[in-house]
Design goal:
411 residues; alpha+beta; Pdz3 Domain; 4-stranded antiparallel beta sheet; 11 helices; 52% helix
Length: 411
């Protein structure tokens, strides 16, 4: 085991030297260090880890079963009602999600949409451009995955225990670089339960993900309303504009006059004539975290002090109106709490997005996802010939998801 620690130390030290020498940036350094540490933990615990097909790692444990049971029994009536609300919400989301997936696929096939669904994966940088994949900073992805998985699986366990279904084990899995967790119920016991119990178990995970996403969305709206203030007009300038080059930024000031809205921009330009030279100040946009506000937004002016000054000559239109020749995107904002809190805001956004979309996809009528089993219980209520219906629906959903990801790439 000492040789493992020696190798880990050597790798971390080498990464540190590369970082201090400027060969790799902080994102690459921290991402590589994280992967090295996780690999060493897996190697140390390898005797308890089951390897399947060389790509799936599974670790079972009997810990936390008593904790889940205690939570379930302490407020059994509440959890029972919460579970039934979850079933109703899950069925509604299943229908809406299926409709949206079908609608998106039709729009991709007819060329109305040029972009579809994307896999959200971690990376050392969020700027990587890979078709069908959306990279997010690795640390945000790790936190978001934990935020999604832990409540999801805990709720499955709680719904099992309120009806005395035994939990055989809990644990984690790793499929290549994709982590996961599981609560393993006694399948034979669960199969003997009433339809209501099974539907509560199947709906619980997605419901808690969507429920928590709703809470975070509310928090994002409150933060946006309180701490984002208008501070410029975002725009795109082609090379034939007054800027003379392609520029995407925010106009914050014209001739000493602060610009906080599109109307202010129009009014200030109207004071001049085509051919006049004006002083324009611009600030860089950061669109990493959208603003949840009823106001039109395009990005965030997160550093209102680092601005660029331009001396521009106004162009003219057919009716002699002065213009800059730019395309206005919308109002841009400044975050009053500074860049440090903006990172927290960005994390909240990704927690919302990943939690919501995982809950949405997981409740689609597609086995072996939870929604597939929930759909099966619904179909069983109306017909004994449920298997071909469930199989056909699962195949349809799988093809639609695959087309939503691959269609924009292939077409």
């Amino acid at each position: 085991m000492r040789i493992v620690y020696f190798i880990l130390g050597f790798i971390l030290f080498s990464l540190f030297l590369l970082f201090t020498a400027g060969f790799i940036d902080l994102n690459v350094f921290s991402f590589s260090a994280f992967i090295s540490i996780v690999a060493s933990i897996i190697f140390k615990d390898r005797k308890n880890i089951k390897f399947t097909a060389g790509i799936l790692l599974m670790r079972r444990t009997k810990r936390f079963r008593d904790t889940i049971d205690s939570i379930a029994q302490r407020h059994k009536t509440f959890w029972s009602a919460f579970g039934m609300i979850g079933v109703a919400v899950a069925i509604i989301v299943m229908l809406l999600g299926s409709f949206l997936l079908i609608d998106q696929s039709i729009k991709i096939a007819t060329g109305v949409l040029k972009d579809g669904a994307r896999l959200i994966l971690p990376g050392p940088a969020a700027s990587l451009d890979v078709p069908g994949v959306l990279f997010v900073p690795w640390w945000i992805w790790i936190i978001a995955v934990a935020f999604v998985i832990v409540p999801h699986e805990t709720m499955h366990g709680i719904m099992c225990r309120i009806d005395k279904v035994r939990i055989k084990s809990v644990g984690w899995i790793l499929l290549l670089v994709l982590p996961g967790a599981f609560v393993e119920p006694d399948e034979k016991q669960l199969e003997k339960q009433s339809r209501k119990t099974k539907m509560r178990v199947y709906a619980a995970g997605s419901f808690i993900n969507i429920f928590l996403a709703g809470i975070i969305l509310l928090l994002l709206v409150l933060i946006s309303s309180a701490f984002f203030v208008p501070s410029g007009v975002a725009f795109y300038a082609p090379d034939n504009s007054s800027f003379g080059k392609n520029v995407t930024a925010s106009i914050t000031e014209i001739s000493g006059q602060r610009i906080n809205s599109i109307d202010q921009l129009r009014n200030e330009l109207a004071k001049h004539e085509p051919g006049d030279a004006i002083e324009v100040k611009t600030a860089e946009l950061d669109s990493g975290a959208p603003i949840f506000s009823p106001l039109p937004s395009s990005g965030l002016v997160i550093n209102d002090k680092n601005v660029e000054s331009h001396t521009l000559v106004l162009q003219g239109t057919g009716d002699s109106r002065p213009v800059l020749g730019i395309a206005v995107i919308g109002t841009s904002y400044i975050f009053l709490l500074g860049s440090g809190m903006l990172v927290f805001y960005t994390l909240l956004f990704w927690l919302f997005a990943i939690s919501f979309f995982v809950g949405l996809v997981n409740i689609l009528p597609l086995k072996p996802l939870d929604g597939g089993f929930l759909f099966e219980e619904i179909v069983k209520k109306f017909t004994r010939h449920h298997k071909p219906i469930v199989t056909g629906m699962s195949l349809l959903m799988f093809l639609l998801i695959a087309f939503s990801i691959l269609g924009p790439i292939l077409l």
